[in-house]
From TrEMBL:
The keyword Flavoprotein does not apply. It comes from Paenibacillus campinasensis. Keywords: Heme, Hydrogen peroxide, Iron, Metal-binding, Oxidoreductase, Peroxidase. Residues 32-420 form the Catalase core domain. SUPFAM superfamilies: Class I glutamine amidotransferase-like, Heme-dependent catalase-like. Coiled coil: none annotated. It catalyses: 2 H2O2 = O2 + 2 H2O. Residues 1-45 are annotated as: Disordered. InterPro entries: Catalase, Catalase_AS, Catalase_clade2, Catalase_clade2_helical, Catalase_core, Catalase_haem_BS, Catalase_immune_responsive, Catalase_large_C. This is Catalase.
Length: 685
């Protein structure tokens, strides 16, 4: 009921109204062919006699089978596995001083959006929780046309020039001779590429960090990666980088956890996003921008157009300008999430490009890809891709054309139609590219300002906490431990000695290579904003497994109420599904059994009190494993009275115990605080 009210109370966006035209329910409707012809029989093909051959004239069979044969479209080469949702964006303050982009002007205006999150390397059938970069692509349906901010959850990239993109993807994808491994970079060809293309050093540091193991799509940052331009009404430009800051903060899984999740629930991130929206826990992200005036382009010790470099937030502060809210799930995954077509070249007046050589290549690649995936040049007419702004031009025909354009004219300039549609002057809202002087020889080279491959990789390492550094070293050792070529392993160690010799030595210890020795880093700089330890901590929408059975303590009911009031989602996990009864007869419905559940699916564990309940749990070895695994993954654990008997280390950090029922209100408060903390890295496991 609460979920339905949440949906009903939402104001319908212009995009929703548009999509309603294409939403068709089959409930209670007569069956027809795709041409609208009523179908009298759908069980048997038309035959020449009951045992005779099927006849070619059976148009219904041919239409049904042909459509089935073509249900699958080519998956994206990268970002194949994705999941999306609808929402809206609202700017906090007018950005008129910096850009004439219409959707960044009025704080009272909401702009409908569709967001698609994704992994990069795996196929559509791979798991959600693999170690990988995550795509974070946002389509704004603005009144001035569609704007696509097509980014990742990391602010830099592996390569500097789009010429190298096919090589990178070929290297990280399954190796061509045996199509192994799927959705992971722990193999020879990827690390061979890395060790021979040192510009990848900075991005590899991010990928080996906890940033590549997000707790959920709702708890990861997003970045536009490239440097773009804001242009205002006066023609003044600022270089700009885009950031998405999750309201719930940045949080991650641990490596052992994600490996188990890939088997326990390969759809873990999809399910988390879907459930959060359905329950009214709408994911929120604040949009931030970093701005550099054009005249300051060359005042930094890095090239601001280099996509392997970030702008440290301590040097160029992030200005928070608006908020994105995801509040509606898709009605049909294929029609919306799979058919949506993003392109960094989809911009609106007020937003323009720079000479970032990776961005320049993407401006060609994305349109070219959609032509293959979506069957021709009319992919913009698929409902999910249609702008809410009216479309009028002289483009005609092509596969899957939906628009019917009457009249004899389809060219410009013309006299027969009064020269319509006619161009819109820039001062009336027409898009005009920023005027930039370009002067130089035609040449296949890279600027000397792009040749520093290590200083920001070193800065990233310097910015990490000791826990995060340990995770990075372990990630390198795991990945390189899968590399069969000792020469490649040694080259990688030698390469990262240029980032930090201690880092390289620690990696070397676990993979059988020669340590470079010594100490030193490419840079002494650090940026606290890069550490995930310095993030927002909130209990909201955290999931807690409540282990309980018949005879649970009645104090549990009050604790559950306090958890719900703080926004925590508690699920009862017991020895079997059904209803369990408390000591005084109260009842709770069991959502999961120990057979079909696991601690990796939750953020915390609470063991209920009650002698009978605890005895039932102790009799099932899975309950002890459940608590032990959560403890080993540094998660908050609570236990009420007798429930403490399931604990390994009752006095460890993040373990909250209520010795008696009368302590339950204070216990609940302490447990909520512990859950907000997310992990207890000081715990000895």
């Amino acid at each position: 009921m609460k979920e339905q009210q949440s949906r009903n109370n939402r104001q319908q966006t212009s995009k929703e109204k548009q999509l309603e035209q294409f939403t068709v329910s089959n409930d209670g409707k007569p069956m027809t062919t795709n041409q609208g012809v009523p179908v009298s029989e759908d069980e048997h093909s038309l035959k020449a006699g009951v045992r005779g051959p099927t006849l070619m004239e059976d148009f219904h069979f041919r239409e049904k089978m042909t459509h089935f044969d073509h249900e699958r479209i080519p998956e994206r080469i990268v970002h194949a596995r994705g999941f999306g949702a609808h929402g809206y964006f609202q700017v906090y303050e007018s950005m008129k001083a910096y850009t004439k982009a219409q959707f960044l002007q009025d704080p009272e205006q909401t702009t409908p959006v569709f967001v698609r999150f994704s992994t990069v390397a795996g196929s559509r059938g791979s798991a959600d929780t693999v170690r990988d970069v995550r795509g974070f692509a946002v389509k704004f349906y603005t009144e001035a046309g569609n704007y696509d901010l097509v980014g990742n959850n990391m602010p830099v990239f592996f390569i500097q020039d789009a010429m190298k993109f096919p090589d990178l993807v070929h290297a990280v994808k399954p190796e061509p001779h045996n199509e192994i491994p799927q959705a992971q970079s722990a193999h020879d060809t990827f690390w061979d590429f890395v060790s021979n293309n040192t510009e990848s050093a900075h991005m590899v540091m991010w990928k080996m960090s906890d940033r590549s193991l997000p707790r959920s799509f709702r708890m990861m940052e997003g970045f536009g990666v490239h440097t773009f331009r804001f242009v205002n009404d006066e023609g003044r430009a600022h270089f700009v980088k885009f950031h998405w800051k999750p309201v719930l903060g940045m949080h991650a899984h641990v490596w052992d956890e994600v490996q188990k999740l890939a088997g326990k629930d390969p759809d873990y991130h999809r399910r988390d996003l879907w459930d959060a929206i359905e329950s009214g826990n709408y994911p929120e992200y604040e949009l931030g921008v970093q701005l550099i005036p054009e005249e300051d382009e060359f005042t930094f010790d890095f090239d601001i157009l280099d996509p392997t470099k970030l702008w440290p937030e301590e040097i160029v502060p992030v200005r928070i300008i608006g908020k994105l809210t995801l509040n509606r799930n898709t009605d049909n995954f294929f029609a919306e999430t799979e058919q949506i077509a993003f392109h960094p070249g989809h911009v609106v007046p007020g937003i323009d490009f720079t000479n970032d050589p990776l961005l320049q290549g993407r401006l060609f690649s994305y349109t070219d890809t959609q032509l293959s995936r979506l069957g021709g040049p009319n992919f913009h007419e698929i409902p999910i891709n249609r702008p809410v702004a009216p479309v009028h031009n002289n483009q005609r025909d092509g596969m899957h054309r939906m628009t019917i354009n009457p009249g004899q004219v389809s060219y410009h300039k013309n006299g027969l139609a009064g020269n319509s549609p006619s161009p819109v002057p820039e001062e009336e809202g027409g898009y005009a590219h920023y005027t930039e002087k370009v002067d130089g020889r035609k040449i296949r080279e890279r600027s000397d300002s792009f040749k520093d491959h290590y200083s920001q990789a070193s800065m990233f390492w310097n910015s990490m906490s000791e826990v995060e550094k340990e995770h990075i070293v372990s990630a390198f050792q795991f990945e390189l431990g899968k590399v069969k070529s000792k020469d490649i392993r040694q080259r990688v160690v030698d390469m990262f000695a240029n980032v930090d010799k201690e880092l390289a030595s620690r990696i070397s210890e676990g993979i059988g290579t020669v340590s470079p020795g010594g100490q030193g880093a490419a840079s002494a700089l650090s940026s606290p904003a890069l550490s995930m330890m310095n993030t927002v901590k909130s209990p909201r929408s955290r999931k807690v497994a409540v282990l309980a059975d018949n005879g649970f303590s009645e104090a549990l009911t009050g604790v559950l109420e306090q958890l719900e009031q703080s926004g925590i989602i508690a699920e009862i996990v017991s020895t079997k599904l059904g209803v369990i009864s408390g000591e005084a007869g109260s009842q709770l419905e069991v959502q999961r059994s120990l057979l079909n559940s696991d601690s990796v699916l939750f953020d915390a564990v609470l063991v209920a009190g009650g002698r009978q309940s605890v005895d039932e749990l102790l009799a099932n070895p899975k309950s002890l494993d459940f608590v032990k695994e959560a403890f080993q993954h540094y998660k908050p654990i609570g236990a009420m009275a007798e429930g403490a008997e399931l604990l390994l280390e009752p006095s460890s950090p993040g373990v909250v115990v209520a010795p008696a029922e009368q302590d339950s209100p204070l216990f609940a408060e302490e447990l909520i605080e512990a859950i907000a903390e997310h992990r207890y890295w000081s715990r000895v496991v």
